[in-house]
Amino acid sequence: MSLQQTYPDGRVALAEGVVLDDPRFTNGDLAPVPVERRTWRTYNYLALWVGMAHCIPSWTLASGLVALGMDWKQAVLTIALANVIVLVPMLLTGHAGTKYGIPFPVFARASFGVRGANLPALIRAAVACCWFGIQTWIGGEGIYLLVGKVLGQGPGHGWLTAGEVLGAPWTQWLSFLLFWLIEIAVITRGMETLRKVENWAAPLVILGALVLLGFMVDKAGGLGPLLDQPSKLGWGADFWKVFFPALMGMIGFWSTLSLNIPDFTRFGGSQKAQLWGQTLGLPTTMTLFAVLSVLVTSGSQAVYGAPIWDPIALAARMSDVAGALFALLVVMVATLSVNIAANVVSPAYDLSNLVPKYVNFRTGALITGVVGIAVMPWKLIANPHVYIFTWLGVVGGLLGTVAGILIADYWLLRRTRLHLADLYRAGGRYWYTGGWNLRAVAALLVGGVLAIGGSYSTVSGGVKQGPFPADGVIPFLKPLADYGWAVGFASSLLLYALLNLGGRASHRE
């Protein structure tokens, strides 16, 4: 069943003559994408992942692992393995988007219920809004330093030393607002504009990273001492204690997209396009970027006497103005491409799914932008240990739980067969109990508790490093905390499948 026509009043007609006219559950953005508009090819998905993976948090992932005691080879191996693992649920959930042309919140209706899908959708939206704010603050910082380089820092040039407002120069707040406006201007023009931005941003970001590497190698006269530093953990028990929670954190980094990838694959021209585009784009890009970050940082250590992991800070240290401007431009393009694709598209659809009659994709994007400011990202990013590294593990565990339910329902129970019309109306086969599938909710709650219930904070120098108790929120679950994503994914998948064991035949469309 495919989309045939969208009427001015918002009603949507499917090819078989079925009309989706309930404003509580459908609008033009949530309806299946018609076949003629499914124009994304392999390169589009490859470019999408290059644009999303090449961002500052990705660049600094390797630094976090090296700081934990790994050498560069162990760090790159951990990142590569994590992205191969997270690619699997991404391809499995992405299949539904391409086959039926539906976004993530509509796909979730099959397992959670037409109304119950708002639960996983809002969880995903909340995470995205926080990340949107953080990335926008980073992009604003790039503009702030870029303009400072152009104006110089001599007498009479007060851009970098302007008066402070709420702890930061007013010029940095202005830069933050400017970058926010650029993002909103792009995303409100729709998904086709996003596709075009990603297409030209991807090669520019790769070129910029390679140019930065060449510059640093030339200045350093080599790659510096970092590549020769041995692992502080070795390959014994100490390494494995760090490896597994680090692996879960790296998986958690893209566990968000493993849920809402149908938001993009719904525009795919074929399953082959999304499968090969993502397979070629995600693991290879993240691994290459990890290697580049280590090599460039190694060069910075040789040139400046200390490793500089933040590419914005590194670009600001360059004495060559042209080189610094180019590096900062690349940083801004990279941040723009990842933030729009990874952190605006999903909540825009998720919020539209909540009240389709009043919120379309564009309105949802605007709400995301406002919430991204309201969460005060400048405070979130002030403590990376608490809000980035701890957060990745918790978010990964919770979102892994949702992924397990989606995959169990779509692949094990329904064998990829959905009834499109019933995804958009009350009283159909996905209505369950008042619009909620209580079995999915139960699996989510149990899987979520198992995955993140034992979350704990490490203690260093007698000081607790994080928001959780040192013994874990639920002490007897603490041993599971280091494996949050895997525990959440596996437990929810198995529990949901078992709860529906007797009704397997009824799930087949």
Automatic annotation (TrEMBL):
Location of this chain's protein in the cell: Membrane
Keyword hit for Amino-acid biosynthesis: no
Family annotation (CDD domains): SLC-NCS1sbd_YbbW-like
Organism lineage string: Bacteria, Bacillati, Actinomycetota, Actinomycetes, Kitasatosporales
A Pfam family matched in the record: Transp_cyt_pur
Keywords recorded for this protein, A-Z: Membrane, Transmembrane, Transmembrane helix
Native species: Streptacidiphilus jiangxiensis
Membrane topology recorded in Swiss-Prot or TrEMBL: Multi-pass membrane protein
GO molecular function terms noted in the UniProt entry: nucleobase transmembrane transporter activity
Parts of the chain that traverse the membrane: 46-69, 75-96, 170-188, 200-217, 239-259, 280-304, 324-346, 358-376, 388-413, 434-456, 483-503
InterPro entries in the record: NCS1, Pur-cyt_permease, Uracil/uridine/allantoin_perm
Gene Ontology cellular component list: plasma membrane
Record-given protein name: Nucleobase:cation symporter-1, NCS1 family
Domain of life per record: Bacteria
Family: Belongs to the purine-cytosine permease (2.A.39) family.
